[in-house]
Design goal:
Length: 149
Amino acid sequence: MTDEIRTPIGFWLKHLDQLIEDGFDAALATADLSRRQWQVLSVLRARPRETPELIIELQPFLTLPDAERLLADLERRGWISDRSGRHELTADGVVAWSAAAEHAHEFRSLTASGVSDEDYRTTLRVLRTMAGNLSAAAATSGAGEAPRN
């Protein structure tokens, strides 16, 4: 067995996740945005959302306290407005999103550099299947968590 195979998937998932977090934050810093702010703006760019909808769409990245803090900050900056609990991008928010978009797209391209479209789709399919396996196991165990080894 090669070292590549011996290193468990959990290591690679955590390692990649941290690299993505740090890399996205660095890429978006020139636009004065964090990755989470970028995600909220991107979701709201598609259409206005209420806070619970945002949390559902951005799981596992946001909790209610995180979302409330981010939304308050984005509203303070004038990038989103809150109309009776429904958040939407303002014209300044669209400008902020656009200023960061090129940096975000460049970082995504760097992340997937050298990975074929087929390999990328296969990786997503495998990860989705593994997550489904563990979610199903957690649901049937009744404990709310997947069994641990």
